[in-house]
Amino acid sequence: MTPKDLKAIVRTVPDFPAPGVQFRDITTLIGHGVGFAAAVGHLARLAQAAGAQAIAGMEARGFIFGAAVAVQLGVGFIPVRKPGKLPVATLGVDYVLEYGSDRLEIDPGAIAAGERVIIVDDLIATGGTALAAAALLRKAGAVVPTAIFAIDLPDLGGAAKLRADGIAVDALMQFPGD
After folding, report:
1. Where are the domains of the chain?
2. Is the CATH code 3.40.50.2020 the one for domain 3-174?
3. Which of 36, 94, 121, 156 is the most buried (most CB within 10 A)?
4. Where is the Phosphoribosyltransferase domain (predicted)?
5. Rounded distance, CA 77 to CA 118, Å?
6. Mean pLDDT of all residues belonging to the chain
């Protein structure tokens, strides 16, 4: 399946979570066996081309796509978690969201110094979470050259922010608006 075919599988839910928002629901793609396999295959080829030595994914849907890509490439997966979810001493970073703040954490022993870690996630919108994950991975000693997404919402500027931070960005599909 081509990225255009995959885009047709993604459901758009109008006025969620607020009036005027067109929510891009990736769960319809995850639930479509052939489409999900094709999406993971496309993402894995992009990650391999970027020289992935490990894949990092952010909780929660980044776990779905990132772990599947890691398995396909035969590399490790680094879960970037919400606070308080890891049973060991963590390395963390606080970051600002549109309406507040949040924190991401990782097991610092999960990354070898200089390891090429590619971020894989379902969607890039404003870029706050992806930027925080990249900062956290770098803090742990990783090299983060690339971030790959199933969906980019370019009007929200997240991919541009990642590029401004020196991270190449690729996505399987784009949707206009928010």
Report:
1. 3-174
2. yes
3. 121
4. 53-149
5. 10
6. 96
